[in-house]
């Protein structure tokens, strides 16, 4: 078999059987050739996500199955979503906005959010979704940094979080208000405007290098960065959706992330639509029974969620999952934080399939390293680099980088060249340039590679603990703690110590039915010591009802550490309410 045939096979069956041969044969040019493109070498995300499917006769397939908070529901077909995107693009054009304009969305997961995202891209403008639970300050800061021209929001969010400052934003041109009621003064009501607009819009002639999205990072390690992404990213979204999430046309797919975070856009809008699946959009927040109900009643086949949610399900126990029919599930994946081995296996026990952990960042735009469908999962690992991705573990040596040996901890690095790599941090050229050294993109995460080429996450570079000459990754310690029957979640930091340099301190949230006591503390410490050895196990354990997390569900260890050391808390604009 010659390589193009193998390659074609992967794409036409979309069954990601990623043999070494297939991995080696893959090229991004070939991946691009599976898409439509625009005349003269152009490329536009909205065209690939919607219009080409309609042109190919799939307009009647449901693109979005929307589940409202109040149990109302709505199906939007590919043809309907494509028409709504065109209407939204027309509304923007009617107000004098031209390609290059920056459109921000601040709203819950309602169908118009998806029409706005795709309509903006169709019009050749740049889209930035913001998480609706943000306070006024983070919203303002992000619109200022991104020089937003348009804001699409609801009347309630406008009054509560936006009205007091937005008129002072020099770049602002238009405010669109979603609700049916008359829009506040100076704003335009979106629904009547869309209803009056044409459902035909000629897609802007964007190229693969034109700006498409600005995404702010989660702010886990410090001030959020505005990562710039281009239309060419859709090539990666198409391929990685097949390879890492096993998406096949017609699948019922549910990504639980909000589009305010990059996962909710790359894999909650673009990748699923490009791969022509039917995606579930749930307007409501996490709720155990609701989620189990959705998996069962909507017959979800592919499910992409996050460790924080998986740990909440685990906390409620296996009994809570009994009586549901999960037989439609085919593939489970997780991203956002390392997934503890306990969580991987729990998927197998409760859903009949393990969770497939995969790794990527806002900056990489798409999944880079994954436990794929064809692999034997190694619980606790990130898996292997996807086709077209070269990853390495590197360490500083003088002015340059060297490759680490198998088993050696170093920084996780990627060879630039894949299509969804960010093109800039807005207004932060120096911070951006620092990410590229010696022909590598440096991720800021520490990891190691085993002799079989499988990657294992160790921790954020900032979170590594150095104790008596040992390098300790918080993930390893946290995963061991979670195996104790009383522990639901754990966060581990290093605190200064005169003899050891640093010692490990753990913050722990308990499972229901367990009470805080000195005896329990001793029991958990003893358990960890047995698993990890005395040098690595926590010296001290404190109990918390909840751990500080970003709104995208990531534990903010730097905040625990700052509080521990009495240092300033730094940027906490993405922090969810927590207890000190
Ligand atoms: P900031 O860059 O502002 O500090 P952030 O890094 O949390 O925030 P994101 O881009 O949303 O912002 O998250 C990417 C990071 O999340 C990765 O660099 C990694 O640290 C962590 N992460 C994501 N998926 C995984 C995974 N499967 N295993 C381990 N870590 C993961
Ligand atoms: Mg980051």
TrEMBL record:
Question: In its keyword annotation, does this UniProt entry include ATP-binding?
Answer: yes
Q: Show where the AMP-binding enzyme C-terminal domain sits.
A: 476-554
Q: Which UniProt keywords apply?
A: Acetylation, ATP-binding, Ligase, Nucleotide-binding
Q: Which GO terms describe its biological process?
A: acetyl-CoA biosynthetic process
List, alphabetically, the Pfam families matched: AMP-binding, AMP-binding_C
Domain called AMP-dependent synthetase/ligase: residue spans: 53-426
List the InterPro entries. AMP-bd_C (IPR025110), AMP-bd_C_sf (IPR045851), AMP-binding_CS (IPR020845), AMP-dep_synth/lig_dom (IPR000873), ANL_N_sf (IPR042099)
Q: Which PANTHER family does this UniProt record tie to the protein?
A: ACETYL-COENZYME A SYNTHETASE (PTHR24095), ACETYL-COENZYME A SYNTHETASE 1 (PTHR24095:SF14)
Cited NCBIfam families: PRK04319.1
Q: What is this protein called?
A: acetate--CoA ligase
């Amino acid at each position: 078999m010659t390589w193009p045939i193998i390659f074609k096979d992967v794409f036409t069956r979309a069954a990601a059987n990623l043999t070494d041969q297939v991995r080696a044969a893959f090229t991004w040019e070939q991946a691009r050739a599976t898409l439509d493109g625009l005349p003269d070498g152009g490329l536009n995300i909205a065209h690939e996500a919607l219009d080409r499917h309609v042109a190919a006769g799939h307009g009647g397939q449901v693109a979005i199955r929307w589940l409202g908070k109040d149990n109302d529901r709505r199906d939007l077909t590919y043809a309907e979503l494509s028409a709504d995107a065109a209407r939204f693009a027309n509304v923007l054009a009617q107000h004098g906005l031209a390609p290059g304009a920056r459109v921000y969305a601040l709203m819950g997961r309602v169908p118009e959010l998806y029409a706005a995202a795709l309509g903006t891209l169709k019009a050749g403008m740049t889209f930035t979704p913001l998480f609706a639970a943000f306070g006024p300050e983070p919203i303002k800061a992000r619109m200022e940094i991104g020089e937003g021209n348009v804001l699409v929001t609801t009347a309630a969010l406008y009054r509560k979080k936006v009205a007091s400052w937005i008129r002072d934003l020099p770049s602002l041109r238009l405010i669109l208000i979603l609700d049916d009621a008359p829009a506040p003064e100076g704003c335009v009501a979106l629904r009547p405007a869309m209803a009056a607009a044409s459902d035909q819009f000629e897609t802007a002639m964007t190229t693969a290098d034109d700006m498409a999205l600005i995404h702010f990072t989660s702010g886990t390690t410090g001030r959020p960065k505005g990562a710039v992404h281009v239309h060419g990213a859709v090539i990666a979204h198409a391929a990685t959706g097949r390879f890492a999430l096993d998406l096949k046309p017609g699948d019922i797919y549910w990504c639980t992330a909000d589009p305010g975070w990059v996962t909710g856009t790359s894999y909650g809008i673009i990748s699923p639509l490009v791969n022509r699946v039917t995606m579930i959009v749930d307007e409501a927040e996490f709720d155990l029974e609701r989620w189990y109900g959705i998996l069962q009643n909507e017959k979800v086949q592919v499910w992409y969620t996050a460790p924080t949610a998986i740990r909440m399900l685990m906390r409620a126990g296996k009994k809570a999952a009994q009586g549901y029919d999960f037989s439609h599930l085919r593939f489970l994946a997780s991203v956002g934080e390392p997934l503890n081995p306990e969580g991987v296996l729990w998927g197998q026990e409760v859903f009949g399939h393990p969770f497939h952990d995969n790794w990527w960042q806002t900056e990489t735009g798409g999944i880079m390293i994954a436990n794929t469908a064809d692999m034997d999962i190694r619980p606790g690992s990130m898996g292997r680099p996807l086709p077209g991705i070269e990853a390495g573990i590197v360490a500083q040596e003088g002015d340059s980088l060297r490759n680490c040996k198998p088993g050696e901890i170093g920084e996780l690095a990627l060879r630039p060249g894949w299509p969804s790599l960010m093109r800039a941090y807005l207004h932060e050229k120096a911070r951006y340039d620092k990410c590229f050294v010696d022909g590598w993109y440096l991720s800021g995460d520490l990891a190691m590679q085993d002799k079989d080429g499988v990657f294992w996450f160790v921790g954020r570079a900032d979170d590594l603990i150095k104790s008596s000459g040992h390098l300790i990754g918080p993930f390893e310690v946290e995963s061991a703690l979670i195996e104790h029957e009383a522990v639901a979640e754990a966060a581990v930091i290093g605190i200064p110590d005169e003899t050891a340099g640093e010692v490990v301190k753990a913050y722990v949230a308990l499972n229901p039915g367990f009470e805080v006591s000195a005896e329990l503390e001793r029991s958990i410490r003893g358990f960890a010591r047995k698993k990890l050895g005395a040098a690595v196990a926590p010296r001290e354990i404190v109990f918390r009802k909840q751990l500080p997390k970003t709104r995208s569900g990531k534990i903010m260890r730097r905040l625990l550490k700052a509080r521990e050391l009495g240092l300033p808390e730094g940027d906490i604009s993405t922090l969810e309410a927590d207890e000190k």
